[in-house]
Design goal:
This protein is α/β, with parallel strands linked by helices. A hairpin with a 2-residue loop joins β5 and β6. The radius of gyration is 24 Å and the shape is globular. About 35% of the residues lie in helices and about 20% in strands. The structure holds nicotinamide-adenine-dinucleotide. Nicotinamide-adenine-dinucleotide binds next to α10 and α11.
């Protein structure tokens, strides 16, 4: 790719945006400008919606067994281009090559699960609900649907939605994050090669104007969103006020509880991977540790060692274990939050601010940071940091720890580390989070399970992935029929 401006993908072709407004896409490690992204105008959403509406007429009549064939081809193409995709993700998003590759695996799994459409689209029926009367429920696609996605998983998050939407017979419009648009550009090249009919899939690049055009467009029946809670709330309320279906995944601040009976060696290794993997920019990253009783000292010591020994660097360098955060602005915001924690009385045990990576001095790097004695009533304990910063709190009992977990507004994920089954059961039974880990740091549901955020981490009813995806993207129709013999014409 040259340092030109990316195009949109509408009606089966790459088309230049009509907007002259562009943003530079910078490699977060080197700050080199990679390309420019257009901030498309509302009319371009309309062009995409018109193309999708037209394509829908034929796509919904295409037998489901045929509709999944381009998905099989897309999966093979993603596998063939895996290295190129991983490099693009690392260059625009900053995570390490291994993390980009792991993301691609999760994306592929969603394509695989969506090919179950011939079974997932099946309805239900009963014969003789009354004598001679049968009742059937069938699933029909909604029509044109759209998704708006965040920067931290440029491939996986769009594929939490796209394969299910199109396998169910809908036509799809994506607005990727304007911070990481290159991955979806590459995917659309693969979509073209996979042979989806024109108009079935479109990408419109941009920011708020594109989002608002999606939310207000009368032809768009449903909106999926992943991003921060403030934007999730905005999108959920405007989409639903306009009569659309909406599923909006928001921010997170995920606690992990460490019991004194946990295996401390593996627990600290897993906790460090969860807190500092992807530079803490994962919606399932552990960001708060709650140690119970005597777990406190050993956990803190071992975690600080594991964190300090992580190699921070450019994600395409083989030895890098942690990359930069997405933008300079994000780096400033995270550093300010660490300072806020200090002002509120936390102890900075490991300070990742003001550190440089040799050869990448201008990169948006923050090294692993640990704050101890974070008060449960502090502003920091309630604010999503979304960076490599881990806060520590302490409790005297499992009951107190669970109360601290449930006191947070977010409910994306919560984990416990213990060797006691009864404690683990009490935890999973009582926590008000939708994705729960037991001796696991990143409880990411497989593609055939719903991604179950709760409370301020999710607005809607049906979640992303799997059977929930098919339910979200289909309307149920119930048919009740009676065919009395005496009404039949005699031949
Ligand atoms: P973001 O909310 O800033 O942006 C997400 C999308 O919304 C982007 O496409 C962006 O263009 C659009 N957007 C941003 N501001 C908008 C506005 N005012 N009006 C309309 N649209 C707007 O999120 P981000 O910084 O890209 O991603 C990080 C956030 O995403 C974190 O809060 C993280 O927890 C969350 N996230 C959540 C999950 C989950 O499963 N719950 C998964 C990944 C990321």
């Amino acid at each position: 790719m040259t340092k030109s401006t990316l195009t949109n993908f509408i009606n089966g072709g790459f088309v230049a945006s009509k907007s002259l407004d562009v943003l530079p896409i910078k490699n977060p490690a080197t700050t080199e400008i990679l390309i420019y992204v257009p901030l498309s105008a509302k009319t371009e959403v309309d062009s995409a919606a018109q193309a999708a509406s037209l394509a829908f007429k034929e796509w919904r009549r295409t037998p489901v067994g045929e509709r999944i064939q381009p998905l099989f081809r897309l999966k093979a193409l993603v596998e063939q281009h895996r290295d190129e995709l991983a490099q693009i993700i690392t260059r625009e998003c900053g995570k390490t090559y291994a993390e980009s590759d792991a993301e691609i695996q999760r994306a592929i799994e969603n394509i695989e699960v969506a090919t179950s459409a011939p079974i997932m689209m099946q309805g239900i029926n009963n014969e003789d609900i009354a004598r001679g009367i049968d009742e059937h429920m069938i699933r029909q696609p909604l029509g044109v649907v759209a998704a708006i996605t965040p920067f931290n998983f440029p491939l996986m998050v769009p594929l939490w939605f796209m394969p299910y939407a199109v396998a169910a017979g809908n036509c799809f419009i994506l607005k990727p994050s304007e911070k990481v648009p290159m991955t979806m550009h590459k995917l659309m090249e693969l979509v073209s090669a996979a042979g989806f009919p024109k108009g079935v899939l479109q990408v419109v690049n941009g920011a708020r104007d594109v989002v608002d055009a999606i939310l207000d467009h009368p032809a768009i029946r449903a909106v999926s969103f992943v991003g921060s809670t403030a934007v999730a709330k905005y999108i959920y309320s405007r989409a639903t006020a306009n009569g659309k279906r909406a599923q909006c995944q928001g921010g997170a601040k995920n606690p992990i509880v460490i019991m004194p009976d946990a295996d401390m060696e593996t627990t600290t290794r897993i906790a460090a991977d969860s807190a500092f993997g992807c530079a803490g920019q994962r919606c399932l990253a552990a960001s708060v540790g709650i140690t119970v009783g005597t777990a406190r000292n050993e956990f803190l010591e071992r975690l600080a060692d594991a964190a300090a020994s992580r190699t921070v660097g450019y994600g395409l360098d083989k030895n890098a274990q942690m990359g930069p955060v997405i933008t300079e602005e994000s780096k400033g915001r995270i550093e300010n939050l660490v300072a806020l924690g200090e002002r509120e009385g936390a102890t900075v045990v490991l300070d990742g601010r003001n550190r440089k990576v040799a050869g990448y001095e201008d990169g948006n790097f923050i090294f692993p940071t640990i704050l101890d004695n974070v008060s449960a009533t502090s502003e920091l304990s309630r604010t999503e940091i979304f960076g490599p910063v881990f806060s520590l709190m302490h409790a005297d009992s499992i009951e107190e720890a669970i109360a601290l977990v449930n006191d947070r507004a977010y409910g994306n994920a919560a984990s416990i580390f213990t060797s006691n089954g009864a404690t683990a059961r009490q935890f999973r039974y009582e926590v008000t989070s939708g994705n729960v880990g037991i001796n696991l740091g990143v409880p990411a549901p497989m593609a055939y399970f719903p991604f179950s955020g709760w409370r301020e981490s999710f607005f809607g009813d049906l979640h992303a992935q799997g059977a929930h995806g098919f339910e979200f993207y289909t309307e149920t129709k119930v048919i009740i029929e009676r065919w009395p013999k005496e009404w039949s014409r005699k031949f």
